[in-house]
Amino acid sequence: MKEQLINYETFITITNAISHSKEPEEVALMTVEGIKTALDVKGCALFLLNHKTNELEVAASYGLSEEYLNKGPISALRSIAQTLKDGPVAIYDVMDDPRLQYPEAARKEGIASILSVPIQIHNKILGAIRVYTAEPWEFTLVDVNFVNALAQIAGMSISIARYSKGLKSSIEVLKTMREAQAQRSTRMTPYEGVPQSFPNMEFHRHH
């Protein structure tokens, strides 16, 4: 029960921070930073789906190396494909699961387990959030629900920001996010540090 209360408090804090941001890049960064810190895992990444190429493209990440992020195109049709169709997918062992597209790159990065959750708005797939752990991890229902809820809130916030900026697609959003991040030397992807949005937050996962 204590862990659930911690996740609930964390959830409220992150969603409050997200709700006050009208910039999609800020929403994406706060989401991955909040999830990574709250669950005390190796890393987290938010992807947007490029419907033209059927590839997932990194919008923001926290705790992952540039080498791993640039390992190659992530096919939405091949890479943990069930995530985009059937909901969250948990991979306990990255080296022993055919659903993973780049198992060797994951091993080299020091990743043991992955949780992939779709970002879905109005029955349309916007992208996915993936959580990466350094140790084998049996993701609990609390973990999955926590990430899933934040994924949908982040998706709605990014979608609202898209319309407010007159952008027609998630790829246009991704382009503006990258341009904004490139102009901010203190906020890059992957962003290393504690976001200003969470100045007083203390996350501790109790096993």
How would you summarize this macromolecular structure in one to three sentences?
The chain is an alpha+beta fold and 207 residues long. It has helices at 2-19, 24-39, 66-69, 82-86, 103-109, 141-164, 170-183; strands at 43-50, 55-62, 74-75, 89-91, 113-121, 124-133. It has a 6-stranded antiparallel sheet with strand order 3-2-1-6-5-4.
- What would CATH call the homologous superfamily of one domain? GAF domain
Spell out the helices and strands N to C.
HHEEHEHEHEEHH
Helicity level: 40-55%
Radius of gyration computed on alpha carbons: 16 Å
The main sheet orders its strands as 3-2-1-6-5-4
CATH top level of one domain is Alpha Beta
Gross geometry: globular
* CATH fold-level assignment of one domain: Beta-Lactamase
Count of individual helical segments:
7
Q: What is the average of the pLDDT values?
A: 77
CATH architecture of one domain: 2-Layer Sandwich
- Cα distance spanning the termini: 12 Å
Number of strands: 6
Layout of secondary structure:
Layout: H1 2-19, H2 24-39, E1 43-50, E2 55-62, H3 66-69, E3 74-75, H4 82-86, E4 89-91, H5 103-109, E5 113-121, E6 124-133, H6 141-164, H7 170-183
Antiparallel strand pairs: 1-2, 1-6, 2-3, 4-5, 5-6
Helix pairs in contact: 1-2, 1-6, 2-6
What report would you give on this structure?
The protein is α+β, with helices and mostly antiparallel strands and 207 residues long. It has a domain at 42-183: Beta-Lactamase, CATH 3.30.450.40. Helices cover 43% and strands 19% of the residues. It is built from seven helices and six strands. The chain has helices spanning 2-19, 24-39, 66-69, 82-86, 103-109, 141-164, 170-183; strands spanning 43-50, 55-62, 74-75, 89-91, 113-121, 124-133. Strands 3-2-1-6-5-4 form a six-stranded antiparallel β-sheet. A hairpin with a 4-residue loop joins strand 1 and strand 2. The radius of gyration is 16 Å and the shape is globular. It starts with a helix and ends in a 24-residue tail after the last helix. Residues 185-207 have low confidence and may be disordered.
